[in-house]
TrEMBL record:
Keyword Cell division: yes
Biological processes annotated in GO: cell division; cell wall organization
DNA damage among keywords: no
Protein name, UniProt field: Cell division protein FtsI/penicillin-binding protein 2
Annotated region (Disordered), positions in chain: 1-28
Length: 637
């Protein structure tokens, strides 16, 4: 019994040890309770502070930052882009289209999104064997089959696998075809575009020019064609119209429009049409004839222009080198327009200035005779005629028609340099004609205070100054128009989108000489196309046209040899300006040949080319034949 009590006593912790243990446990329990209570209080205080801070931040955002944050989020999600305006057409004088636009589509794909979507599909449907690569191949094969003339399957596959998040696939797709492709393959989107079409191809290309998308634009949403050369460039503001405005949603992190999110803000306003003075049939014929003749005489090139004798309107303006604006131009040189931008020393065709000043001054008449030697010393050099002859009596008409350099300088000596310079300026030499085409050169006339002793031995015979073929032809337009030079022009009117026809401002006109002098000089120029024996023959009998009286003038200007820097005996500017018909002028034709082979028949004169062009004009416009032939005039006594 004693053992059993001892065991129970030990188990129940009897004695002083039990008393100490109970007290210790009570102290620890009290401490734990206090600590827990403190932690709870601290936690509640911290939570309260956090909630208060969050509340204050929320109030601040709602009260002060809500509008700004909303605007920023909207900017990240939406974009304002242009709605392309329909570009105006370019028409010839008869209403035939030389340039117009058709609506197209440009296909694109968001490669990053497409990769993510098809990677996810492949994970969820491993049994399908469908992934980005198989989908890209399917799309590429379908698009290439739909637009075989625009892109190949290989090119499309290369686009799908380029290292980029976004790419364009193909341009110039018909709208209906693009719509069907996008409906079948939602990955493929498209942009509205326009394609410029030039139905005449090379016809008037140097005048009309070329329009395309600006490759230097940083705006990926640039939707308007812009002119890059010719009238497309020069009158771009009239043709381009005013783009509309559209709000679209864009994919996050990319400038890709989400289909179906477009909201119009402002509609686009189409551009105006331009009605030209050009006759596209005449333009075609002039280009064809000029190119064939340049090849025939092995010239470096050439230009020609046809003006209305009274209004100065340009019926045709051609260059030997041209391009097809429906295709990317191979060089900027082909896109140029030498007829307005490349001046040259015209030679004897400029002698009309000297003749006009001489007749107007009253110092001579067409029948006045001058004793003309074969050469004439001028300052430190000697001027010769183009053919060898002793001293002969030339009429003033003969000096012009046979193109005597010596005789012309004798006339210039009678006129004096100041009167000559005044007449030259009235003819517009050294000044832009304001034809309305880009890149026009004013040509060159040396300033009066820089003339040396030999200057006045060169200018009256067409050397030492330069002009374009348009300027040259404009001089003869003044003679054909009773002495009034009218600035040439190529644009006749602007037609607004609402159909209003707004004529171009009237061209400036200048009285060069009085009507009597102009008529006299015009009749003197008839002798240029005379044939027969030496005393009667002018320099261009090949320019004559049966049934019509033709006034004209030849020119042979020496070119500067680039190797020596001096005038060349081998390189020449061959020119001709003629009036059809002389009795009732309708057209003036100017021609320039750049360094033809003068040893080839026809290479030393452009008269034959003029006759070909004049014959076409007479037939196309049913110009009445002349009732009477021109009397043969003796040129050398």
């Amino acid at each position: 019994m004693a053992r059993q009590r001892g065991i129970r006593g030990a188990q129940s912790g009897s004695g002083p040890h039990r008393t100490y243990s109970v007290r210790a446990r009570r102290r620890r329990s009290a401490t734990t309770v206090r600590n827990n209570r403190n932690r709870f209080v601290v936690g509640r205080i911290v939570l309260t502070l956090v909630l208060v801070a969050a509340g204050l931040k929320l109030v601040h955002i709602q009260a002060f930052e809500a509008a700004a944050l909303s605007e920023r989020a909207e900017r990240q999600r939406t974009t304002i882009i242009d709605i392309p305006a329909e570009r105006g057409s370019i028409l010839d004088r008869n209403g035939s289209e030389l340039a117009f636009s058709v609506e197209t589509r440009k296909l694109w794909v968001n490669l990053r999104q497409m990769r993510e979507d098809w990677a996810e599909y492949a994970r969820e449907h491993p049994e399908s064997n469908q992934n980005f690569d198989t989908r890209a191949a399917e799309i590429a094969e379908h698009i290439a089959r739909q637009v075989p003339d625009l892109v190949t399957e290989r090119e499309l596959l290369d686009s799908f696998h380029k290292d980029a998040s976004f790419t364009y696939l193909v341009d110039d797709v018909e709208p209906s075809v693009a719509e069907r492709i996008s409906q079948r393959f939602p990955e493929i989107g498209y942009e509205k575009r326009a394609k410029r079409v030039y139905p005449g191809e090379e016809v008037a290309a140097n005048i009309v020019g070329y329009a395309n998308w600006r490759t230097d634009s940083e705006d990926v949403h640039e939707h308007n064609l812009h002119g890059l050369s010719g009238l497309e460039f020069y009158r771009d503001d009239d043709l381009v119209g005013t783009p509309g405005r559209q709000i679209v949603d864009t994919a996050q992190g990319a400038d890709v429009v989400i289909p179906g999110t477009e909201r119009d803000v402002q509609p686009a306003t189409p551009g105006s049409d331009l009605e030209l003075t050009i006759d596209s049939d005449v333009q075609y014929e002039l280009q064809r004839s000029l190119a064939a003749y340049v090849d025939k005489v092995d010239a470096k090139g050439g230009s020609a222009v046809i003006l209305d004798a009274h209004t100065g309107e340009v019926y045709a303006l051609a260059n030997h080198r041209t391009f097809n604006p429906n295709e990317p131009p191979s060089s900027t040189e082909a896109m140029g327009n030498p007829a307005v931008s490349s001046p040259f020393e015209p030679g004897s065709v400029a002698k009309v200035i000297t003749a006009t000043a001489a007749i107007e001054s009253g110092l001579v008449t067409p029948e006045t005779e001058l004793s003309v030697p074969g050469s004439l010393p001028v300052a430190d050099h000697t001027v010769h005629d183009a053919w060898s002859h002793g001293t002969q009596n030339f009429t003033v008409t003969g000096i012009l028609a046979k193109s005597s350099n010596v005789g012309t300088l004798l006339l210039a000596d009678k006129i004096g340099p100041d009167r000559f310079l005044s007449t030259l300026e009235k003819f517009g030499v050294g000044q832009r004609t304001n034809i309305g085409l880009p890149g026009e050169s004013p040509g060159y006339v040396p300033p009066r205070d820089q003339w040396s002793g030999t200057t006045y031995g060169n200018l009256p015979i067409g050397q030492g100054l330069s002009m374009t073929v348009v300027q040259m032809t404009s001089m003869y337009q003044a003679i054909a128009n009773g002495g009034v030079r009218v600035e040439p022009r190529v644009v006749k009117a602007k037609i607004t989108p609402d159909g209003r026809r707004i004529p171009e401002p009237a061209p400036k006109s200048v009285r060069v000489t009085d009507p009597k002098t102009a008529d006299t000089v015009k009749n003197m120029l008839l002798a240029t196309t005379q044939g027969g024996e030496y005393a009667y023959s002018g320099t261009a009998p090949e320019a004559a046209l049966e049934g019509y009286r033709i006034s004209g003038k030849t020119g042979t200007g020496q070119q500067v040899d680039p190797k020596t820097g001096a005038y060349s005996n081998r390189l020449h500017n061959i020119t001709f300006a003629g009036i059809l018909p002389a009795d009732e002028p309708r057209f003036v034709v100017g021609i320039w040949l750049d360094a033809p082979d003068t040893t080839i028949p026809g290479g030393s004169s452009a008269g034959a080319l003029f006759s070909e062009v004049a014959s076409y004009l007479a037939q196309r416009y049913n110009i009445p034949v002349t009732d009477q032939e021109s009397p043969r005039v003796r040129l050398v006594r």
